[in-house]
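User: I'm putting together a teaching handout on how sequence relates to shape, and I'd like one worked example. Could you take START domain-containing protein from Sinomicrobium weinanense, show the sequence you're using, and then write out its predicted structure as tokens right after it?

Assistant: Happy to. First the sequence, then the structure tokens directly below it.
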Amino acid sequence: MKQLGTSLFFMFFLFEAGYPQEPATEWKMARDEKDITISYRWVSIPDGRKAREMEAVFMIHSDIATLIEQFTNAEKFLQWSVTAHDCDIQLNSPTQWQTYIQFRLPWPFRSRDLITRNELTVTRNASIIKMNSTPKARPEWQHIKRIMSYQATWKFIPVPDGRTKVVHRAITEDEPDFPRAFTDPVVQAKLIASVEKLRKQVR
């Protein structure tokens, strides 16, 4: 299998569906470390529940083309995504591709996999990768739980000093396996570690 590595690095269980005690539409910062800000908000989903959306914002010394390559090149992605164990990418065009990622997680977490359809849009002010889960695109593996619902964006905004501002948002309607108080610190640490590796890789 050709190796690639998306959270998502796709940090898929950062974003969980549930029933918040105090639903809010404003972003609330949860962590600010190493110039990486992680925030959450609750949004309504079609079945009447509330889903928690995550936003991560950081600056990086890189041009946008180099950053996009980290998401379309298998070897490069696995070098910075600390959660991805195995992945395969099928490039349909420079702006559209399908990604399969397998996450091997330590106990008590269950290993998962994710399939996304990805589309790159380039405008005058930013470049955006939009990701949507396509769970039926490939057969499921035994003992690996598939992520059924995942939507994410990676927005790359150029700034005058040669850096790029990155705004990453993601959400899933899948039910969480564990309470947020248990998973949040672990997943946030993995996200920060991935961003730090990405920074070094594109420097």
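A couple of points you could highlight for students: The mean pLDDT is 86. The chain is about 20% helix and 40% strand.
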